[in-house]
Amino acid sequence: MKDEPRRVEVALGERRYLIVIGRGLLDDRELLRDCVSADEVMAVSNETVGPLYLERLESAFAARRFASACLPDGEHEKRLESMLPVFDTMLVNGLSRDCQVIALGGGVIGDLAGFVAATYQRGVDFVQVPTTLLAMVDSSVGGKTGVNHPRGKNMIGAFHQPRAVIADLAVLDTLPDRELRAGMAEVIKYALLGDRDFLDWLEAHIDAAMARDPAAMAFIIERCCRNKAAIVAADERESGERALLNLGHTFGHAIEGARGYGDWLHGEAIAAGMCMAARMSARLGWISAAQRDRAITLVERAGLPIRAPDDIGPARFREFMARDKKNRNGELRLVLLRNLGDATVTADYDPRALEATLEAVGH
Ligand code: NAD
Ligand code: MG
């Protein structure tokens, strides 16, 4: 028997939308046509994902005006220049302000296609069809869209909420293991920052999840989407609570920056970053050594790095951490653990705990 899709609402008043999660959704034409209501459709994908799944959209929308663009693969393509051929295709095909954009891909395509939708003719609707675990649990939900600038990641963008998110679990079958693990870092993040019950569940089911057990994956994606939806509904523009989603990210971004983006995957850097946040929280006495080790063990069991590369010294860490968007008045704000499943954003900590945590990298 086919399982009914799971549905999670993102409660944003008139802009509320549904995240639909299930296996085989891309073969469900009725669902696709319900979620994408426009007569004119522009699908954006990349050269890896497009050949695998674009045809499903093409056939579902055969009766409508349908255009598509497949960009080269890679984070490097998440830049303004890559948007131009997408706009060209839309204009050449005569797509009007009533068209809808579909983002078919991981976070790179979701962020870029979302920003295309935010800006084409001053804004058109879009639907996210995330194809990585990371995109399903994180980037496709919440309305942050944008591209990178040579001087910084995600420096150009807009808040633009999708009309729907369609997460077809079957597409994860082709996702490389390393990308699955990287997505699992963000999954663990939700548990550590605010969902203690989910943390218990993950500890019991992490092996099933890493083996891509369908029931485990469905549960994980729904649970993470519920967590993200609640945070986004409470703080759409990140004036408060949404910053908790940066657990592990201040340390992690420093690892990515110091390494040169692309060497470590984002999720790998965030995994090591969360372990650093746990170690620092333990140094502060906010969590016990046993709790710290619980967090680190879970990260390790997901096949993720638990230590930053040992050639990044404290000075280099500080250089990159100083650029963090959360900082106010020169104070370094960090997401730290007051307990497992209870994170806080604060600049109110003993700086010696940070120093010791940075010093300990490489030892
Ligand atoms: P990605 O989009 O680069 O995808 C990772 C790799 O997997 C790519 O090579 C892609 O082609 C391939 N791939 C995707 N789906 C596949 C599938 N089903 N089968 C086979 N291969 C597949 O990376 P990502 O990790 O999904 O996203 C990272 C991006 O997301 C970053 O740019 C990051 O800034 C952004 N992000 C945005 C938000 C947000 O709130 N908007 C949140 C987190 C991350
Ligand atoms: Mg992240």
From TrEMBL:
Cofactors needed by this protein, per the record, are: Co(2+); Zn(2+); NAD(+)
State where NAD(+) binds. Answer: 73-78, 107-111, 131-132, 144, 153
Describe the location of the 3-dehydroquinate synthase N-terminal domain by residue ranges. 70-181
Main localization is cytoplasm
Question: Keyword set for this entry?
Answer: Amino-acid biosynthesis, Aromatic amino acid biosynthesis, Cobalt, Cytoplasm, Lyase, Metal-binding, NAD, Nucleotide-binding, Zinc
Q: Tell me its EC number(s), please.
A: 4.2.3.4
Which terms does the UniProt entry file under GO BP?
A: amino acid biosynthetic process; aromatic amino acid family biosynthetic process; chorismate biosynthetic process
Please name the pathway: Metabolic intermediate biosynthesis; chorismate biosynthesis; chorismate from D-erythrose 4-phosphate and phosphoenolpyruvate: step 2/7
Keyword Metal-binding listed? The answer is yes
Q: Entry's HAMAP family?
A: DHQ_synthase
Q: What is the name of the protein in this document?
A: 3-dehydroquinate synthase
Source organism of this protein record: Spiribacter curvatus
